[in-house]
TrEMBL record:
NCBIfam families: sensory_box
Leading EC class: transferase
SMART domains: PAC (SM00086), PAS (SM00091)
Protein name: histidine kinase
Amino acid sequence: LKGKAKNNFVLDEESQELLLRALIDGAPDRIFAKDRNFRYIFVNQSFAAYLGKNVEEIIGKDDSELGFSAELVFGDRNGLFRGIREEDRAVLAGEIVRNPYQAILFEGGKQHIFDTQKQPLCDAEGNIFAVLGFSREISQLQATEEARNQSQAKLQKITASVPGTVYQIDLYPDGSMAFSFVSAGCRELYEIEPEAAQEDFNVIVDMIHPEDRDDFLNSVTLSAENLQPWRWEGRIVTPSGKLKWVQGASQPELQASGEIVYYGLFTDISARKQAELKLQLYQQIFLKSNDAIAILDPQGYYLETNQAHTALLGYCASKLWGKTPANLMGEQAFASLMQSLAETGSYRGEKTFIKALQKGTVEVELSAFAVLNDAGNVVCYVSINRDITERKRAEEKLLLYREIFLNSNDAIVIIDADGFFLEQNPAHQTLLEYTDAELEAEASPLVAGECFSVIAKSLAKTG
């Protein structure tokens, strides 16, 4: 947040990106949600990385389709523990379920221990529509220690065990490079065996997208020259043809022999890149929406408005900075808006009058909601104004025409295309002495007699 004026803050693009990224990619825990058919409708990147899949490969599938064992999914036949499916059923029935020691055997024979909690996810009416789960790795220290022993202390340089490919790259004085260690995560990320990468460094380099390859090599060279931490982001194309975004990070260390060793990891950041793309799309939706949208800070001061807001009210965003909507909708209406947002997090006003710069008073349908951070604190408020002036005018005309229909001295009746009664005005009822119920029971030919066929033909021919 950057200060712009007293009691006024602006969410810059970087802050927006960080907020969205934090929701999708920032949590170290595995977060997931399943629908009532036990199919995944949401997973975060940590969850997907543990399965060695992209998020898209998981969405829409159940645990069995993702390769979890039948015993893990459906439970032990001897009843020693209930499986994932029975836990999910209990949550969909309203329970909060916690499994503090959930052992899962992954492909390759590696076992991970998780502390998992699941709870019901309800819609606005309180109906349970999904299972929301949080799973934390609790075998990290043990797994890290085993990895260190297997690699003969090579992984002691790694400060954390995270999803991805742990590696050691050796950069020799002649400029050549080689992997002296590549973790099993290489299979998930690059779709090759670790040994293949260790035998030929170019196997990994050749997967880098042609447009990003030179940038990768230049970044390694630059890092080697100044021995500064290395960080790179780029695209790879795996042997199966999948395009992935990868982030590489490591700390270079100069050895006595003159070679430079990089201890680090590669991680799949495709989900984050997709989130960044979504952010751009959301920005376009905000900017190009036909509804007048404004973003307010927690005190109700304007932060930003879209083009439709400017077109409706005549004020550009810079003219509204340091002000609240009270100047446009009145102090009492604004106080009611802020009170509702503070108490419920939302507001909806069927009919709100706002003073526009050139149009005078315009009638709008106003809705607003609070945007919260992970701690539950208000980041900002969003108000959406929809101009209903023309709709109200149309409704008023409809009422006027109905009054004319009801009070006309001419006998008027409305029938459908098949000749059945819909409505009559009082003058028609007085003239023919038929009640509405009687007309509903009769077809128009019986009421109008022989003339109806002539009328019907004329209507069909000329309207």
